[in-house]
Design a protein that fits this description.
The protein is α/β, with parallel strands linked by helices. About 30% of the residues lie in helices and about 15% in strands. The chain has 9 helices and 8 strands. The chain has an 8-stranded parallel β-sheet, sandwiched between helices. Helix 1 packs across helix 9, helix 3 runs parallel beside helix 4 and helix 4 packs parallel to helix 5. Bound molecules: manganese (II) ion (2 copies). The site of one manganese (II) ion has 6 residues, from loops.
Length: about 325
Amino acid sequence: VAEPPRHPRPQGPVDASEIPRFVGVRTFARLPGPELLDRAAIAILGAPFDGGASFRPGARFGPSAIREGSLLLRGYNEALEVGPFAEVQVVDAGDAAANPLDLAAAHAQIEAAAARLHSAGARVFGLGGDHSVSLPLLRAAAGRHGPLALVQLDAHTDTTDEFFHTRVSHGTMFRRAIEEGLVDPSRSVQVGLRGSVYGPGHHPDNRALGFRTFMAREIDARGVGAACELVAQAVRGPAYLTVDIDVLDPAFAPGTGTPEPGGLTTRELLALVRGLVGLELVAADLVEVAPAYDASGATAITAASVAFEVLSLLALAARS
Ligand code: MN
Ligand code: MN
């Protein structure tokens, strides 16, 4: 009996010239599912939990909406000159079975699912879910790689101490991640911050944690390139990219839990993500897609395109 090749060619998406895009069981971009996990260099993991949302719920339906929104994705990224699905084996690992009534239990389930993928050597790309799911995803990633640089694309700092006398939610988890030593703020950057805040101390308190920040309005004067330069200066070593879809203006992504006018255009966000090429990315997530608030479905389609850029970065990181 012949041994299987040690490095079989990656199995990519279903061939859309043979099987129409709307046919079949939904995986991200019609990639192979969990049956190929033992070969995965990159694993996509749904984290369908929104019990950490303080305002509008619904991001538990984000992973399935992003998969549906990904049907039209093709395999080659001409801007970054990489075909991520041909470069390495990318697999849709399905969803963590997140308990909708118990945040701690749901987070433990998400962490365990991500940790299994990391321990098999995969780079993990989580699809939220509200932003609180970044905390268990970071626990799993840091458990494998040690303290991580964080690149956070978000309208909000997510570093408030408590809401409703509760320490873990989608507005507090990055303060917890720093306290737990998962994130090294001195080599971390937040881009896209904006909107009304609780008082004059909000942003100073956030920066006092050690983050470098690039406000959304700074893009008006300095452009996306300057944000990418700040990231390139600050971020060293193993890095984690988190994309809160609310970094986009609600004109482009209304389907989200905490919409904040004055955000990035989709074109700016795509340029920003592409500008992160060269980071030593070990894991990433894309969160806060709440499809029920966007009857057009555009938020999920946009999220899928942003996810394709993130997968391209992960594939390039896996190559080097
Ligand atoms: Mn946000
Ligand atoms: Mn957020």
